[in-house]
Amino acid sequence: MKSGKSWAWVTFILGAAYFFIPLIATMEFSMRMKRGEYSFEAYRVVLGDPRFQESFTFSVVAAVFTIILGVLLVVPTAYWIRLRLPQLRPVVEFVTLLPLVIPAIVIVFGYIRMYGSNSPLPFLSSDIGTSALLVIGYATLALPYMYRAVDTGLRTIDVRTLTEAAQILGAGWTTIISRVILPNVLIAVLSGAFLTFAIVIGEFTMASLLNRPAFGPYLQNIGANRAYEPAALAIIAFVITWGCMSVIQVLSRFAPKSANRPN
What we know:
cell membrane; mainly alpha; MetI-like fold; MetI-like
């Protein structure tokens, strides 16, 4: 028994070292921009760069619209599948897994071919249309995570009973989804939203090929031309991503723990 615990601690320590040592080394290197002393000069340069501010703002706005689109698409779909079409759940789950299998570069090249300037829907002929297409692409990439987060939330509530009670009180389908179902799965939706935010902030392929001023291409451009600033940006991106993950962990504590009720 003691041997098993010892191996567990050894595995944990090795895993922690594998994770934290490169992170600490990156942090240490990012603070060596001034010769002979440690400083946050690289972070000051990065945060003061107008391109950083513009690209980060663009990605944050894109993430907000992606989250809104994902919620509008996923919540009604997952709700209806659980309520009326449970036999289609395997098909829907398979479809939502496709973005994990199909590379982003394949998806974006399909968009370019389908929505180019000669297309009946020429999204790419304007900046607004291209940005809208990028948001749709982001929503596609985030679909597996958003759908599973919402579906997990729906499993914790009695969907059929809540729906029948709302209908008895005269509520329509829009009211049921927006004022009954959504508040009950809000924690799950927020978890999916923070995962979506983390994906959008670091995404490179779609933003680069669609020529959008997003944070991912900015990271790549700085990494190709600077020394210390890329390390600082890596730490900043890490803090943002793990900040989102931490919020998800905090929110999960407020989610219902057991509701395996028949639907």
